[in-house]
Amino acid sequence: MNRTLAPWTAPERPDSRTVRSGDGALVVTLRRTPDGVFVERVIRQPGSARVVQAVVFATAGQFMRWCDADRARFDYPLVYASLTRHADALFAARTDPVATG
After folding, report:
1. pLDDT single digits (tens) 48-89
2. Would you tell me how many other CB atoms lie within 10 Å of the CB of residue 63?
3. Alpha-carbon distance 53 to 40, whole Å?
């Protein structure tokens, strides 16, 4: 049976930043938490179900190593450029003494 699946879209949340690929196959959502930055990565594999990963990174270095290890960064370089820019802003806001009180 041959089926064409519509691109999946995650709901928008006001306290998070979501980056999507143009084809809708990759959706990454970032949200600041007291413990770091929560990342949810959803990728639709061709001919199969979605793969969902969820993790909290305590430091920007941990997040960058995770991004560098992801093979999808070669297929979606603009998504990963935007993703790292958003993550940098979230990590910077987390360590800002004015933001933390």
Report:
1. 788 899 999 999 999 999 999 998 889 999 999 999 999 999
2. 23
3. 6
Q: How far is Cα 62 from Cα 68, in angstroms, rounded to an integer?
A: 10
Question: Six-digit token pair at 59?
Answer: 């430091």
- 17-26's contacts with Cβ under 8 Å and 24+ in sequence apart are 17/86, 17/90, 19/79, 19/82, 19/83, 19/86, 20/79, 21/76, 21/79, 26/72, 26/75, 26/76, 26/79
Query: Do residues 73 and 65 lie in contact, with contact meaning Cβ atoms separated by under 8 Å?
Result: no
Instruction: Give the DSSP H or E segment for 12.
Output: none
* Rounded Cα–Cα distance for residues 53 and 42 (Å): 6
Q: Where are the domains of the chain?
A: 25-91
Alpha helix ranges (H) inside 1-101: 60-69, 72-75, 77-95, 97-100
Evaluate whether 58 touches 66 at the Cβ level (below 8 Å). Answer: no
pTM of the shown model: 0.76
